[in-house]
Amino acid sequence: MKTQRECVLTNARLMLADCILDPGWLAVADGMIIEIGEGRAPERGEDLGGDLLMPGLIELHTDHLDAHYAPRPNVRWHPRAAVVSFDGQLATSGITTVLDSLRVWSEDGAEDVDGEAVVLAQAIAEARETGMLRVSHFLHLRCEVPMPNVVAEATELIGRSDVRLLSLMDHTPGQRQFRDEQKLRDYYRGQNASLTDAQLDGLFARRIAYQAAYAAENYRNLVALARKHDVPLASHDDTTLEHVEQAVQDRVAIAEFPTTIEAAQALHTTGIRVLMGAPNLVRGGSHAGNVATAELAKIGALDVLSSDYMPASLLLAALQLPDIVPGVSLVAAVRAVTKTPAQAIGLDDRGEIAVGKRADLIRVRTVERLPVVRTVWQLGSRVA
After folding, report:
1. Which of 62, 340, 355, 360 could be bridged to 56 by S-S, CB 3.0 to 4.6 A?
2. Cβ atoms of 360 and 378 closer than 8 Å
């Protein structure tokens, strides 16, 4: 007997983890994929007209929720309404599972949204519990290691069941992502155009002092905290082989945005999954002047793509990658936004079209070289 939620999707280019069935079909029951086939489906179903049917995308690092919560300087939107708005954008971008990256630190005069991770985490939980969300939301705790209060704030959040990743960041001027101090000045002025040189000088001096006073102890405590709660760790902006050695020592699972080829290649060789920005790939390079995503793909050192600050970039980058780097197949490119990120954080129930996996699916049509998400299913139910 068919269950109420059973459906069959037919006449699709079916993107599996290791090949494409064209045409292909699949059947869904109780939110799970129960059968897959090539050619004509054995029964009538929804005809997808030859469109690409893919697993829903998995996003591990996006702080774009901030743009919905703080749409203008010194403006705060209703937290739950901001989450729902962001959730809708994710769904229509083809992202069905997201790790919302929350800034776990407070610092006067710097970022527009910091020190509010608890507020946003609670808003996400409330939206989930009241059935307001279309996609699956988990938490990624972004910890700025030199900040005096970062361990206390991380401790307050890490016991939550939806925390799936903790990243160890250090944006002290003159190192890692911002070895070029001017790039950091440009970044902060992009966040707040009213900042003067004197204010930035003071901010940078405070950051350098914080690193000297707190970074080493905070780093050890954050690693211990993640291990205690069995939360995967991510390094951030690894630049040197010393950074790589530290990541290996601390059993880091994901290396976010390494800044040099040397570091990225070494990280990948150790088995740490290298995550790079989809916007970097689409734009043709790093906005901060660091290594290009395409360069790492060419040497086989790219494992995961992240939309970072632009949700729509994730699907676009995956579909463009084989054209930018001919040695990368479309199947491999799609794995970098589906199966591999899911495995990296232990979500083994999703990320590929396979029997027994969640029916988190997206229907995609390419129009004038741009992918358009036409339909999104979450656990077999249409959500967009």
Report:
1. 360
2. yes
**Tokens at residue 383, please?**
């959500």
Residue ranges of alpha helices (H) inside 18-77 are 65-69
Tell me the C-alpha distance between 361 and 378, whole Å. Answer: 7
pLDDT tens for the 384 residues of the chain, in order? 344 458 999 999 999 999 999 999 999 999 999 999 999 998 899 999 999 999 999 999 999 999 999 998 888 999 999 999 999 999 999 999 999 999 998 766 555 656 699 999 999 999 999 999 999 999 999 999 999 999 999 999 999 999 999 999 998 876 656 666 566 666 665 555 566 777 777 777 888 888 899 999 999 999 999 999 999 999 999 999 999 999 999 999 999 999 999 999 999 999 999 999 999 999 998 877 789 999 999 999 999 999 999 999 999 999 999 999 999 999 999 999 999 999 999 999 999 999 999 999 999 999 988 999 999 999 999 999
**What is the distance between the alpha carbons of residues 81 and 61, in angstroms, rounded to a whole number?**
21
**Residue 256 has which token pair?**
């976010």
* CA-closest candidate to residue 307, choices 256, 351, 376: 256
Look at phi and psi of residue 15 and say left if phi exceeds 0, alpha if psi is from -120 to 50, else beta: beta
Rounded to an integer, what distance in angstroms lies between the CA atom of residue 367 and that of residue 101?
Answer: 31
d(CA 136, CA 90): 10
Distances (CA, A) of 27 to 132, 168, 338: 26, 41, 20
**Which DSSP string corresponds to 77-133?**
--HHHHHHHHHHHHHHTTEEEEEEEEE----TTS-SS-S-HHHHHHHHHHHHHTT--
334 contacts 58 by C-beta, under 8 angstroms: no
Beta strands in the chain (DSSP E): 7-15, 20-29, 32-38, 46-47, 52-55, 57-62, 95-103, 136-144, 163-169, 233-236, 254-256, 273-277, 304-306, 361-367, 370-378, 381-382
Amino acid occupying residue 274: V
